[in-house]
User: Fold this.
Amino acid sequence: MVAIPTRTRFRGVSVREAVLFDAPNGASEFSPFVEYGDAEAAAWLAAAIEFGWGELPPVTRGRIAVNATVPAVPAGEVPSVLARFPGCRTAKVKVAERGQTLADDVARVRAVREAMGPDAAVRVDANGGWSVDEAVAALTVLAEFDLDYAEQPCAGVDELVRVRARLTGGQGVAGSNPPSPAGSSSNPEPAGYGSTLVRIAADESVRKAEDPLAVARAGAADLLVVKAQPLGGIARALEIVAEAGLPVVVSSALDTSVGIAMGLHLAAALPDGALAGACGLGTVTLLDGDVTADPLLPVAGEIEVRRPDLDAELLERYAAPPEREAWWRERVARCRALLGG
Assistant:
């Protein structure tokens, strides 16, 4: 059990806690956020059990292109954040941060675009923080920066449908036909939709939903963001991708390198043509420490698909206090009971 500080407060988190298992397949990770209930966290445990003890699908890629992740920092800090992601030509920028304004978002996205140049892919992620009207207004302004897509602008599937409908038909508007994401050969649109001012990606509406396919059936998104742990493991994530029929980006949940290895395996196991560009798996750079001496960090914009070894010294350095370890042991036991046999 480890507790690793983050370099910058990210998603409200300043210390990332994770349970690590030394399993037959190699190290595995269980790290649902602390506010998640046991029923939701049980899917994360199922993923950890599969990765540590289960039969995993074969991989067809040895390296995965990753994006830079820019927290909701002041615009002046953007260059130093991007410097932690050497060679990355895609950036995901956090927006709609509580306590900030659209002007803050615009300044941050502008700083990213200026730092990375016109040929980079720039995405924004609101984590469901906008209403429908706020999302349409914000994305209409941010379209100036030729966005690759907007991730989870609103919380609900019905809201995503309304946002996407209102952004459709933006022909002739600056930023309306965004280029294909880096690493993809096409920019598919589900039937019934024309060119959009900004494409919509669904994250929480997939990984936190009782029915992760509802967003695809509703035509609420152009692509999906999938994460191995929240979806219950690599095999289940691959099933969802196949059934949804939409292009995907594989992302992380502020994992250690062990959790990142699970995401890399998922990305490397996807069928040809499924990936919609660089994946959000470079986030170990947002942590001020790790559990391996050879962390999974971007090199020339990519990360090698491999499984890191745990480092005893680092595990001791970042060991959680006894009361937090006890809390997590109890949580693992409760979640294991929910999974049954």
